[in-house]
Amino acid sequence: MQRDIQQLLNPALQNIATYRVEGGQQAEIKLNQNESPFDVPMWLKEEIISEFVKEPWNRYPDILPYKGMKAYAEFLGVLPDSVMMSNGSNEMLYTIFLACLGPGRTVLIPTPSFSLYEKIALLLQSRIVTVPMLPGLEFDTDAILRVARDEHVDFIVLSTPNNPTSKSLSFDEIRLITESSDAIVLVDEAYIEFSRQRSILELINRQPNLIVLRTMSKALALAGIRIGFAIANPLLMAELAKPKIPFASGRLAEITLTHVLANYSLVNDAVSYILHERDHIYNELLSISGVEPFLSDTNFLIIRINDAGSVFKSLQSEGILVRNVSGYPLMENCLRFNVGLVDENKRLIEIIRSL
Length: 355
Ligand SMILES: Cc1ncc(COP(=O)(O)O)c(C=O)c1O
What we know:
Low-confidence stretches: none
Bound molecules: pyridoxal-5'-phosphate
Number of strands: 13
Strand order of the largest sheet: 2-8-7-6-5-3-4
CATH class of the largest domain: Alpha Beta
């Protein structure tokens, strides 16, 4: 072998790291991946599995999961041609970025935001312009509008409510960005069910440049099944379908989705609980000196404390896994944790208070 293996590979690999979850994915009290604390109930799992075993496992599923897409389109009240389902919204992010980016293209990403955006843009050798959040972690809408215009961006990615800041843009701010830019605007609504702001979805038919991204991994408690969706005007959706991995969603995902949508009161109950508990945790944390909680629009909370690194370790030694997000711009000494079960949240607050 004459040449270095690195030289044979995509040069972008030198600037990106393998995805990892700090602290791992196992803990007695696991609050580090913004999951739902409630698993799908056993009676519903059994209903889903009894349908799944009747499927032909030796046969490919549909190229795209049309039955799941039809069910979700009906649930949202949009045309079936407006939606596309993926194997988690991460897979859809790759699809959309493949459709929108490439060498010579520019993407605007507010920062800090979901780390995968930057990674895929780097892989596609695109130019990234970042727009920092304001010091209180709110979006800087004026700067987004200015940079979108001045830098001639092709693609804007807005995670709202945003991971990891937990803050949202308002409906009118998103509309303004979408209307005043001729870029494609991707609005990642992974946490929309927990937001004080309403979804931008109703604009897809009026805004030909708007894509809405949804996941079933948070409010719908299906992170282990892997289901995501893009919703856009049918003309744009037909283009986004071109780079899509065929057969990426298995039969189980499609069946699970239809059953969970048919029992959506379970999701509504879980969301009500999480919103109530989120307020309770926020108020408890406000009363602890040396802890600064941020008002959240998501199923997780951000706190700023002295020496986040050592608090992370102390919590870990008590069996509680949170995310240390101190490495993100503007988030020095910040920790992130999702709302858990009542006893889990109690334990978390107790330990933070004792520290
Ligand atoms: C903003 C945002 N988008 C997308 C995802 C990916 O979700 P999934 O691939 O599970 O649908 C996450 C996961 O944490 C997220 O925070």
